Amino acid sequence: MKTVPDDQQYGEGRKPRVLRDKAFARRLETACEGNPHCPTDAYRGKQKWIYDSLDEEFGVKLSAEAVRKWFSGESRPRPKIMTFLARLLEVDEAWLALGITPTLTPLEKKKRNAMATGAVNLVAGMFQLAGGHIAFPEDDSSHVYAIISGKRIEIDAVLPFYLGNDQFRATIADKNLDGKVVIAVLPQHEFYFRLVVLTPEVIRSAGERRGDFYEVVLEQRGIKWKAGANQISELASISELV
Questions:
Q1: pLDDT tens digits, residue range 188-237?
Q2: Is the Cβ–Cβ distance between 186 and 160 less than 8 Å?
Q3: Helix crossing, 79-89 with 22-34: angle to 10°?
Q4: DSSP string spanning 146-186?
Q5: Rounded Cα–Cα distance for residues 116 and 159 (Å)
Q6: Residue 136 CB partners (closer than 8 Å, separation 6+)
Q7: How far is CA 89 from its chain centroid?
Q8: Minimal CA–CA distance to 157: which of 108, 203, 106, 121?
Q9: What is the dihedral of CA 100, 203, 53, 87, to 10 degrees?
Q10: Number of helices (H) and strands (E), helices first, in the chain?
């Protein structure tokens, strides 16, 4: 949805068009909630912190009304100001501006989505082979719900992107991070996969929060894995999760 930039000028006698962008407003709220420096006690506290901090750190002078319109979805920052805002909030600029994570071309993304679906199906199949029952929610392709040995488990199966030099980047949704099991599926060759469990503690300590998701770099050290300073064990059996 198109919106009117906050500093766009209008001709005499003309009224500005209000084209609401609620999606941007929601991402802005999410970014504020995830930033440890942004006030969370009051709605206006967030707005004041943003226009004060943009001025202090980047020399960007804005009115309180301009920032208020960002939060209400009535307008959005111009590209240069969006860059500074993303840096201030310590989130990915493409995610903040457009709600996307543009690490791949459209063709690569299509292929990657197909592979990610395969990773989810692989994990689901392992639970079924272990005697469990699974279900897929309609709104999230990376999630699986499993019931095994009478225990219900919410699983987020992620397929990390290979960076080279035995390093992989995993993208993990922030939603319900403490209530789910995150399993990274790491292909070694055509019929060989290695699975590691990323705990909330590892994700938060080794990951970089980019908006409503974390990016965690995994490093392969022979048969062992690391994320930052954390040693990560491979998942040897589904029973380890029960």
A1: 887 888 999 999 999 999 998 888 889 999 999 888 899 999 999 889 88
A2: yes
A3: 30
A4: EEETTEEEEEEEE-PEEEETTEEEEEEE-TTGGGSEEEEEE
A5: 6
A6: 120, 124, 143, 144, 145
A7: 14
A8: 121
A9: -40
A10: 7, 13
The helix/strand/coil state of 200 is helix
Tokens of residue 43, six digits: 């709605």
Provide the 10 A C-beta neighbour count for residue 221. Answer: 9
- The span from the CA of 206 to the CA of 218, in Å, is 9
Question: What is the reported pTM?
Answer: 0.65
Beta strands in the chain (DSSP E): 4-5, 75-76, 133-135, 143-148, 151-158, 161-164, 167-173, 181-189, 192-198, 208-209, 213-221, 224-227, 230-232
Record the tokens describing residue 141, joined without a space. 């392709």
Chain segment 142-179, per-residue pLDDT in tens: 788 999 888 999 999 999 988 888 999 999 988 889 99
- Asked if 193 contacts 122 with a C-beta cutoff of 8 angstroms, the reply is yes
Length of the chain, in residues: 242
